[in-house]
């Protein structure tokens, strides 16, 4: 029987991040349901009980990976170049699509995981992420004054469904290019904002 590895001592946060990054690499190559905690521990160079110590079950680790990759950090408006809203939206979406392209398999798995019959915990995290991503976009483009919040946020979340479908066509079906996806998403986002603005004036 092979002994489990004994990891060098690291601060808890570093150890947790080490395990998380190892899980991300494995989940990029294969569906998370086919990756065992034993494999994750081996990839991280730690004893398997540490996986359970830091994350609980394999499913809880997967949900943490979802949060780590899908919950985009805030983007400061000053970080987006461009003189017009259209230009700034283009830069924002280019940055987002570049991040998606770095981990295409795991991104596709995430979006599929929220479909019919999805694990309720996973589906709940993805719904939370959809709302967060929409709010990050609103904040980054400084759209808060363009429409009532209770109308703007749902519209941007709905636009996010088109974004997911377009990215699926690009990454999985290969019927669209990244540039085509970006063009479609910028144009439709502008339409969504026009609808929200019209509602404000009504």
Provide a brief overview of the structure:
The chain is built from 9 helices and no strands.
Keywords:
9 helices; 202 residues; mainly alpha
| Average of the residue pLDDT scores | 87
In helices, the fraction of residues equals: over 70%
Number of E-state strands: 0
Query: What is the makeup of the main sheet?
Result: none
- Helix- and strand-based class? mainly alpha
> Which fold name is given in CATH as the topology of the largest domain?
Tetracycline Repressor, domain 2
**Outline:** elongated
- Which range does the strand content fall in? under 5%
CA-CA gap between termini: 73 Å
Instruction: Count structural domains.
Output: 2
Unreliable residue stretches: none
Number of helical elements: 9
- What pattern of helices and strands is seen along the backbone? HHHHHHHHH
Quickly give the CATH architecture of the largest domain. Answer: Orthogonal Bundle
Broad CATH class of the largest domain = Mainly Alpha
Cα-atom radius of gyration: 20 Å
